Amino acid sequence: MCNGALSFALKTWQSRMLNSALEYWQDWGFSSKPVLLKTFKQGQNHCTGLIEVADKRFVLKVFQHSYKRTINAERWANTLDLSPEIVYAANNIQILDYIDDQGFSENKLSVLADAIQSMHSARYSPTTEFDLLGFAHEYLQTADASTLAWHQQLLPILNEFLADPTLWAFCHNDLVVENCLFSPQGNAVIIDWEFAQPNNPWFDLAAVILYFKLNKTQAKDFLDNYQTGWSNKIGERIFISSQIAVLWLDLLWNLKRHGVSYRAKNQSRFLELMALAEQRDILLIPNPK
Question: What is the pLDDT of residues 191-244, one digit of tens each?
């Protein structure tokens, strides 16, 4: 199946799942049946759509797995005003307030840093911790020889990251740009908490540095807004090892989901990893196109 047909089939399947969930609208406390306005890009563990009822918009999620862990994390995040308000959550269905995202700009870095600091400094202790190597092993089950070779070369850096003495905190673990929204009120709102578990806080910080494409000056400001003096850590090994850990896990997930064609279509991401690895004296052999 070609990419266009696959994308169409996925959107059709998402629409079917969301429309099926809408049959339960009377359980959600609404006065009339919502209308499905659009579907969003599929999340890691759910289908997501924008719905409207009585001229008000909400986000509808239908979970495929990890429902309980995600909801518990979001309820906790609600107490810190870090995630959208939960309108309804039961039976693998969740309704959230819709956030009219104002988009990211450099002057919002301090707001995002404050939100992440609030998350990392608050108390929350679920029973399981983020298992970086466990995730990597899962994604490597169907990997090709080139990917397996890269993983072996990067394994010392991953183990170094895991051995870093920074005190662990409750982390989001998926701070891509799409998961960091900025409300009209000026605050940062974080969505999609399915991977949220205790981890080294550098995993979240490295994600922002990578995905928001911060230059050295911006990274310095971001880290100092997160916690005074943390910009000094730019010269420490954790600054690079954390970025390698985040990017490699991301690439492994995409390779497992999309196959080796992902590598050919996203060469810049692999070149970025090669450049990071070279800073740690690891020369990754370029992947074939």
Answer: 999 999 999 999 999 999 999 999 999 999 999 999 999 999 999 999 999 999
In angstroms, rounded to a whole number, what is the distance separating the alpha carbons of residues 271 and 267? 6
Dihedral angle over CA of 46, 51, 57, 61, nearest 10: -10
CA dihedral 264, 269, 275, 281 (to 10 degrees): -80
Instruction: Find all residues with CB under 8 Å of 107, minimum gap 6, and list them.
Output: none
Give Cα separations from 209 to 146, 218, 244, 246 (angstroms).
27, 9, 11, 10
Q: Per the structure block, which two tokens stand in for 219? A: 């990274």
Q: Which residues contact 37 (CB under 8 A, 6 or more apart)?
A: 49, 50, 51, 52, 57
Task: Specify which residues 182 forms β-bridges with.
Answer: 188
* 182 φ/ψ angles, rounded to the nearest 5 degrees: -130, 115
The structure's pTM equals 0.93
| DSSP one-letter string for 101-162 | -----GGGHHHHHHHHHHHHHS----S----HHHHHHHHGGG--HHHHHHHHHHHHHHHHHH
